[in-house]
Each structure stands twice: as structure tokens, then as C-alpha cells.
Amino acid sequence: MPDDADLAAAFSSATEKLRTAGTMDFTGQNPWERLPTPSDYVAPLVFLASDDAALMTGGNITVDGGALAKYWPQTPRR
Questions:
Q1: pLDDT averaged over consecutive 10-residue blocks of the chain (78 residues)?
Q2: What is the DSSP track for the chain?
Q3: Do residues 76 and 29 make contact, with C-beta atoms less than 8 angstroms apart?
Q4: pLDDT at 68
Q5: Does residue 22 come out as left (phi exceeding 0), alpha (psi in the -120 to 50 range) or beta?
Q6: 28-61-66 Cα angle (round to 5)
Q7: How far apart are CA 74 and CA 16, in angstroms?
Q8: What is the per-residue pLDDT for 26?
Q9: Which of 9, 54, 59, 72 is most buried (CB neighbours < 10 A)?
Q10: Which pLDDT value is given to residue 9?
């Protein structure tokens, strides 16, 4: 949250408008219809700690149930 009181109020107002419009429904727009739990991160972490990941030198392993591929902070117009 911004330190400036006016900016913080404007931010809160804008966030509330998006929330009431239904455009911030992260869980509802997620293809798996649930958010990841800690147990969902175990297999990727075990892989990264194993010898099988020895040649990985950089990259992203996204564990989000497809949210990054689908989720839009604001639903785009069609």
C-alpha cells in the first residue's frame, strides 16, 4: 500500500471497484478451480534438488494450475 494517504485511498477505491465488478476473482478464473497448496510445490522442488536437474541453468517452473496462462486482472473485452 502506498505511504501517501491520498494515493492509498485511490488505490483502495480502485481495488474495491474491481472486486465488486467481479474482475478480481482469481480462484474463479483459474482453470483448476483451486489455488495451489503447499503440497503442489513438492514435486518440482524435489526435481530441482535432484541430479536430474543438474543441467538446468535458469528458467521458470510455474506451479499455478494454469492461472498464468489464463488469468487476467481485468477480463478483456471481446
A1: 78 76 62 80 94 91 78 56
A2: --SSHHHHHHHHHHHHHHHHTTTT-HHHHSTTSS---GGGGHHHHHHHHSGGGTT--S-----STTHHHH--SSPPP-
A3: no
A4: 73
A5: left
A6: 20
A7: 13
A8: 63
A9: 9
A10: 84
Residue type, 44: P
Cell numbers given for 61:
517452473
Q: Position 5: which residue type?
A: A
**Residue 22: predicted pLDDT:** 57
Residue type, 50: S
**Which set of grid coordinates corresponds to residue 43?**
514435486
Grid coordinates 510455474 are at which residue?
62
Supply 5's cell numbers: 494517504
26: Cβ contacts below 8 Å, ≥ 6 apart = 35, 67, 71
26 is written with which cell numbers? 482469481
